[in-house]
Amino acid sequence: MTRTIQNVTILGSTGSIGASTLDVLARHPDRYRVFALSGYRQLERLAQQCRRFRPALAAVPDEDSARRLGGLLDGCPVRILAGESALAEISAHDETDVVMAAIVGAAGLPAGIAAARAGKRILLANKESLVMAGKVFLDACRQGGASVLPIDSEHNAVFQCLPNGRNGAGVRRILLTASGGPFREMPLERMADVTAAQACEHPNWKMGRKISVDSATMMNKGLELIEAHYLFDMPDAGLDVVVHPQSIVHSMVEYTDGSTLAQLGNPDMRTPIAHALAYPERIESGVDMLRLAEIGRLDFEAPDLGRFACLRLAREALRAEGAAPAVLNAANEVAVESFLAGRIGFLDIARLNERVLGRLGGEAAGSCLDSVLDIDRRARAEARAFVEGACP
Fold first, then answer.
1. How far apart are CA 167 and CA 389, in angstroms?
2. Tens digits of residue pLDDT in 293-306
3. How far apart are CA 134 and CA 188, in angstroms?
4. Residue ranges of the alpha helices (H) in the chain?
5. What is the pLDDT of residues 107-128, one digit of tens each?
6. CA distance 7 to 64
7. pTM of the model
8. Distance of alpha carbon 211 from alpha carbon 221, whole angstroms
9. How many other β-carbons are positioned within 10 Å of the β-carbon of residue 281?
């Protein structure tokens, strides 16, 4: 049987998800072709990827980056696009079949909307698209005929445990698992002195700095609750979090008959990437098989909301609806950036998020991309004002 090769565009190819996606694609040259890549700061790494995979297009943030990348490519025949429109152009390009949306944070939303409007198969690793603009993003998918497959290990696990990947009759609850991060057992009074290096040292997963800090505060799990609400049309009452330090059970779905289905696997993002790329088929991902006898035990516990205030705030934002999730996401991005830069302390992340959510979280949700981005801009300004006050 002759198989049609699919063209894959990777938004954020130099990050951990992008690199894992390229690893999976390289294992299946008969099924996939790398059509376009994008990078932000790591231009040397982007150049290496371009030389190896020979995409038709590469997107960078500005003309200076384009000149630098062109020099690094040394004659490699890749067309370089620059500027704000570049990401949307490669996402919606007529020759793009699949878009891996792996840009971290709000920066990935416009390109995700462009892919949705163009009817692409979207592999969604950018949870912020749904947290900021759940209804706007999903409406664009419906209108454009796009399909969305979740890449976050938790949501991909839920997708695998639901009938046809959708919520329906008989589903009672979705349980997202959380590792608890590096500070699960650290006394709260010691967490004020946590450094950026400590926060980025995740015990199980290899991730970028921003998502590592989000895992350490458990804001990542809070954002995933909001994402699950939109992905699976599940109300807040049907969503819960359980701490599972081994990161082997990636999430669970509880049914009304007493059954609970779980998806298990080694903590390696190539598993959900391979699943979403080939769905409904299965392909080899390069991940080792799970050896439960060697693991020996699987532990579960309730999250400590006193220790992890960010998880509590995300639950409050989900219940408030309106602009609250977008406000919380914007505040948190500024908070994490400021923490990594040494401008605020680890516990200040939750304090900043709570202040900004209290100031702006009661507004109505954005009804279009521009209004969502306006809410995001104002929340960031409020968050930066907090940082300036903390660091006069």
1. 45
2. 999 999 999 999 98
3. 34
4. 16-26, 43-53, 63-73, 84-92, 109-117, 128-144, 153-161, 196-199, 209-217, 219-231, 270-278, 292-295, 309-320, 324-340, 348-360, 369-390
5. 899 999 999 999 999 999 998 8
6. 28
7. 0.93
8. 10
9. 9
